[in-house]
Write a structure and sequence with these properties.
Blueprint lengths: L20 H4 L1 E4 L1 H22 L5 H17 L4 E4 L2 H7 L4 H25 L1
Antiparallel strand pairs: 1-2
Helix pairs in contact: 2-3, 2-5, 3-5
């Protein structure tokens, strides 16, 4: 049985969390759905980067991810749950740009995977 190759999961590389709580201090529930949607977004961005030979800036990714989170809230699929200020200070370990930079590494890794697949096809 032949299966279509799939890019590696965005969670397979890098220890930087996919959860935006660590950069913005806002939890979204259910977290599992948010992580799945964030990973799917990264995969789509990787394919877009490959197809369009695009390199995303951290600012572009921040806008894209904030739009994703807003859409998920608008659709009623996740609910924001702002943490108390003391918890935000304790767990907000990244700036939004640092978080976006980590996601950009994932996007670029997936774009490189697609490029290698098509070079080997």
């Amino acid at each position: 049985m032949h299966t279509t190759p799939r890019p590696p999961s965005p969670m397979e590389f890098g220890s930087m969390p996919l959860d935006p709580f660590y950069a913005w201090g806002i939890s979204y529930e259910p977290l599992e759905l948010l992580i799945e949607e964030t990973a799917a977004c990264i995969e789509a961005l990787g394919l877009e980067a490959y197809r369009e030979s695009k390199v995303f800036t951290e600012e572009e990714l921040i806008e894209r991810f904030q739009a994703l989170f807003a859409r998920l809230v608008e659709e009623g699929r996740v609910q924001p749950a702002p943490a108390p200020p003391e918890e935000q200070r304790r767990w907000k370990i990244l700036t939004p740009k640092q978080w976006a930079r980590a996601q950009n590494a994932r996007v670029n890794h997936i774009a490189a995977w697609w490029k290698a697949q098509n070079r080997n096809a």
